Amino acid sequence: VDSSGVRHFTLTAAAGTTEMLPGTSTPTWGFNGPVLGPTIRARRGETVAFDITNDLPEATTVHWHGVHVPARFDGGPHQTIEPGARWEPTWTVNQPAATLWYHPHPHGSTEKHAYRGLAGLFVVDDDEADALDLPKTYGVDDIPLIIQDRRFTADGALDESDPTDVGLLGDTIVTNGIAGAHLKVGTEKVRLRILNGSGGRMYNLGFADNREFAMIASDGGLLAKPATMTRIALSPGERAEIVVATGESPVLLRAFAFDDHAGVAAGEAAKFGLADIFDILELRPAANPGRSAALPTTLATLPRLDPSAAAAQRRFELRWFMINGERMDMNRIDFTPTVDSTEIWTVRNVDNWPHNFHVHDTQFRILDIDGAAPPPELSGWKDTVYARPGATIRLTLRFSEYADPTYPYMYHCHLMLHEDQGMMGQFLVL
Ligand code: C2O
Ligand code: CU
Ligand code: CU
């Protein structure tokens, strides 16, 4: 933090090697290290300033997923950093406490860059969240989990061959960059900040003994109150913060079969990886755990939804690498929302493939899914939502503060292969 209160970060993207599999050296890419990147942490109200260098052999970008950020600093496909070049985005953090993330977004190569290891968390803190009695000691009872799937060649390199229709699917889960991860937990309860950092895999997460956990936050911040659950589904790019009591013996965090796929052609679910089951992380409790407080009964006050205030309604049909029948064109602006106005977007997956839908710059709320109110885990702030084949999802969203007649924001399917193939569009906030 400098004398004017600006919080500075330096990131360098470079190639290295990582022991993802025991005893095997795998060539990977990372920020400030061989794989993934440091957790960026900043408070609401603080100005952050980045000095980002690209030491990779090809151009990349750094996008702030879920972050409310001026369009010219969004790090989408228009903010290319050439090899050897630097990029210095800066903005004042103005959003609630949340687990956000950053990853490359070079048009056509996002999946490859993320698969090779470029991704990190971006945690926002604020006074309201700090005042709550939640596990919050980073690395002790507040643990980041970046969950990804990988395939390896015989010589231990990342296998980038044979993408499926949802992208590169791996047969090995790496959690925070390593396979077979475990975590020693010294407290009664642990908070897991979970990111689905995979390119195309859906996870239906729970514990092997089906124990309950409390979900406390979705993509863009705390839920109104903790939601007791035994499973949480995350499509690529989505996050969930959960708090679980560890008990006396080890327990496995597991990805169960992802069953929310009515509408996928019969027999096709397996080819999208939806039937796969993986162990993600073993929690190993200490013999004499430190006490953890009971969870607060309320967490945050979410604004009431008022669909009648919407200034515009827009429709998005997802089908076959396209949105509304078109592929991404870097030179085409698809629409221009007005700054500080509310809109309602209706997203329909008219395909028989699973998709999801992500919007840059803003956090939205889900009005309804197929006409029904969203379940607790989808009732808070979201920036990415799973779209089951056949589903119709209505979102309400608002683009505030940053009008820019030159630089667009993106919206897209966050299955990274689909995004790379052009299932993306762009809008200017005017
Ligand atoms: Cu997580 Cu447009 O990206
Ligand atoms: Cu994004
Ligand atoms: Cu898709």
Describe this protein's structure.
This protein has three domains: 6-127, Cupredoxins -  blue copper proteins (Immunoglobulin-like, Sandwich), CATH 2.60.40; 142-290, Sandwich (Immunoglobulin-like); 307-427, Immunoglobulin-like (Sandwich), CATH 2.60.40. The chain is 3% helix and 41% strand. The protein has three helices and 30 strands. Strands 12-11-10-14-19-16-17 form a seven-stranded mixed sheet, with no helix packed on it. Strands 1, 2, 4, 6 and 7 form a five-stranded mixed sheet that branches. It has a five-stranded mixed sheet with strand order 13-21-20-15-18, with no helix packed on it. Strand 11 and strand 12 form a beta hairpin. The protein starts with 5 loop residues before the first strand and ends with a strand. Bound molecules: CU-O-CU linkage (C2O) and copper (II) ion (2 copies). One copper (II) ion is lined by residues 355, 413, 415, 418, 423. This is Copper oxidase. Belongs to the multicopper oxidase family.
Estimate the global geometry from the Cα principal axes.
globular
Which value, in Å, is the CA radius of gyration?
A: 20 Å
Q: Bound small molecules, which ones?
A: CU-O-CU linkage, copper (II) ion
Gap from first CA to last CA? 33 Å
What is the annotated CATH architecture of the largest domain?
Sandwich
Task: Give the amount of beta strand, in percent.
Answer: 35-45%
- Give me the CATH superfamily of the largest domain: Cupredoxins -  blue copper proteins
Compute the number of structural domains. 3
Average pLDDT, rounded to a whole number, is 97
Number of helices: 3
Q: Structural class of the secondary structure composition?
A: mainly beta
Question: In total, how many beta strands?
Answer: 30
Low confidence ranges: none
User: The CATH topology of the largest domain is what?
Assistant: Immunoglobulin-like
Largest sheet: 7 strands, mixed
What is the CATH class of the largest domain? Answer: Mainly Beta
